[in-house]
Amino acid sequence: MSDSPVRLIRAKRHSDARGWFTETYNRDTFAGLGIDTVFVQDNHSYSAPAFTLRGLHFQAPPRAQAKLVRCIRGRVFDVAVDIRRGSPTFGQWVGAELSAENGDQLYIPVGFAHGFVTLERDCEVVYKCSDLYAPQADGGVRWDSAGIDWPIPAGTTPELSDKDKVQPLLADFDTPFSYDGRPLAPLV
After folding, report:
1. Which contiguous run of DSSP H or E holds residue 165?
2. For residue 2, what pLDDT is reported?
3. Could you report the per-residue pLDDT of 53-107, keeping only the tens digit for each?
4. What are the Cα distances from residue 4, in Å, to 34, 107, 175, 180?
5. Measured between alpha carbons, how far is 8 from 154 in angstroms, rounded to an integer?
6. At CA 37, angle to CA 31 and CA 38, rounded to 5?
7. Which sign does the torsion angle of CA 168, 94, 25, 75 carry?
8. For residue 1, what pLDDT is reported?
9. I need a surface site. Which of 20, 74, 89, 137 has the fewest CB within 10 A?
10. Rounded to whole angstroms, how far apart are CA atoms 165 and 163?
11. What local confidence, expressed as pLDDT, does residue 188 receive?
């Protein structure tokens, strides 16, 4: 089991001639993985064009959110960036492909900016949040300022919201988060 605060969760699928069944969240199973987050809100996004990029987003304390993210249609490259003041891994990122086919989920704790880019058309992403949306706590850093190796073809400009186009650069960002003693580690 990884000690990293960001975790890749690989769900077990039980298959037969009809298809498959999977349990995407179980409080006791997640507690056994060291994740004791209580989730209070579910979100669902749809992105029509390929290479739609959403992020890098967070919600600031006292309304900070942990997230459990999965792709239920298509494929996305999902990332978490360490934005905790004093962290030896501040500004570093991890990412994974989440798809309807692989069923993987990414757990992103408080203190990390989150974003994803769609790798094909018509993608749907669902995620659980540990606090309700609070517009006054909404924040972000610019998608291209954290050194993320986004899998976007050369010469392709990602589809961005107006908000995401003007987020502050990571280098200019004054983070409201503090380091909790757990450095970011590669996903396993």
Report:
1. helix 162-165
2. 56
3. 999 999 999 999 999 999 999 999 999 999 999 999 999 999 999 999 999 999 9
4. 10, 10, 20, 11
5. 28
6. 115
7. positive
8. 47
9. 20
10. 5
11. 84
| Residues ≥6 apart with Cβ < 8 Å to 39 | 25, 68, 128, 129, 130
Report the distance separating Cα 70 and Cα 98, nearest Å: 6
pLDDT beneath 50: ranges in the chain: 1
Dig out the tokens for 20 from the structure: 């498959």
**How many residues are recorded in the chain?**
188
Q: Could you give the residue numbers annotated as active site? A: 57, 127
Tokens of 77: 């490259």
User: Measuring CA to CA, which residue among 162, 170, 114 is closest to residue 142?
Assistant: 170
